[in-house]
Amino acid sequence: MKQEELQAIASQLKHPTGEKGIEMGNMMNETNINMTHHSIQNLNISKENKILELGHGNGGHLEFLMEQSENLKYYGLEMSDLMFQEARQINRNFVSQKQAFFSLYDGNIIPFEDSFFNKIFTVNTLYFWQEPEKLLAEIYRVLKPDGNFCLTFAEESFMKQLPFTQFEFELYSTEKVQQLIEKTDFKIVYTETLTEKVKSKMGELVDRDYTTIVLEK
Q1: What distance in Å separates the CA atoms of residue 48 and residue 154, rounded to the nearest whole number?
Q2: From start to end of the chain, where are the E strands?
Q3: Under the phi-then-psi rule, with left for phi > 0, alpha for psi from -120 to 50, and beta for the rest, what region is 59?
Q4: For a Cys-Cys bond, which of 4, 14, 35, 149 suits 120, CB 3.0-4.6 Å?
Q5: Stated pTM of the model
Q6: 148 in helix, strand or coil?
Q7: CB atoms < 10 A from the CB of 208, how many?
C-alpha cells in the first residue's frame, strides 16, 4: 500500500469520518469485540453502577455491557462526531430510556465532576492519547474511591507489524504502560496478556497479543 493509503487508515482509526468512517467503525467493533467484552467482564460491574467509556466507537457492544447488572447508567465519550452520532443511533433505545448518555470531548478533559463513576474503561485508545499522564489524572479524578479503571490495548510487539501504525500511533508494551501508571496515584490490581486470532485490515488471520490492566483508586 502507498504511504498516503496507510496514513488515511491511521487517520480513520484515530478519528473516523465520512462514509469510510462508518465502515471503519463497524470493522473496529468487530475486530475489538473480544477485547471489549474482556474489559467489561474485568470491571466486575454491579447494580446501579455509573460506567464511563472513553472512545466507544459505534457502541455496538453496549447491549452486552447492560446485561452485566441492573439499573446501570452508561456514559460514553468520543472525539469523533461520526462515532458519537452512530453510537446514539445504534443505542437509541438505551438513550431514550436514559440509560446511555453520549458526549463529545477533546480527548484531554473529562467533562464530569469528581468521584462521579464507579467504573471506567477504554479499549484501543491509548495509542492516540495526546497527554497520557494528564488523561490518567483526569480518569483518577472522576472515579469514585475504590472504583476501577480497565485499560486494554494491543501490545507493541503486535502493533509494530502493522504498516499504518507508523502514523499517528504511540505504541505501548505492558512495561511501558506500567511505568506510565507508576507516575499516577492508581494501584494496579490485575494484569493479563492474552492472544487471539483476528482478521487484519488487509484481510488475513493474525495472532494479536493484547493486555488488560485493572487499576483501582
Answers
A1: 30
A2: 50-54, 73-78, 100-104, 117-123, 143-154, 187-199, 205-216
A3: left
A4: 149
A5: 0.94
A6: strand
A7: 21
Short-list 46, 11, 61, 49, CA closest to 143: 49
What is the C-alpha separation between 133 and 198, in angstroms, rounded? 30
For residue 173, what are the contacts with CB-CB under 8 A and spacing of at least 6? 155, 156, 157
Q: How far apart are CA 103 and CA 88, in angstroms?
A: 10
Tell me: the pLDDT tens digits for 143-201?
Answer: 999 999 999 999 999 999 888 889 889 999 999 999 999 999 999 999 999 999 987 76
Question: Phi/psi class of residue 100: alpha, beta or left (left: φ > 0; alpha: ψ in -120 to 50)?
Answer: beta
| Nearest CA-CA partner of 151 in 123, 178, 171 | 123
Residues 6+ apart with CB under 8 A from 136: 180, 181, 183, 184, 186
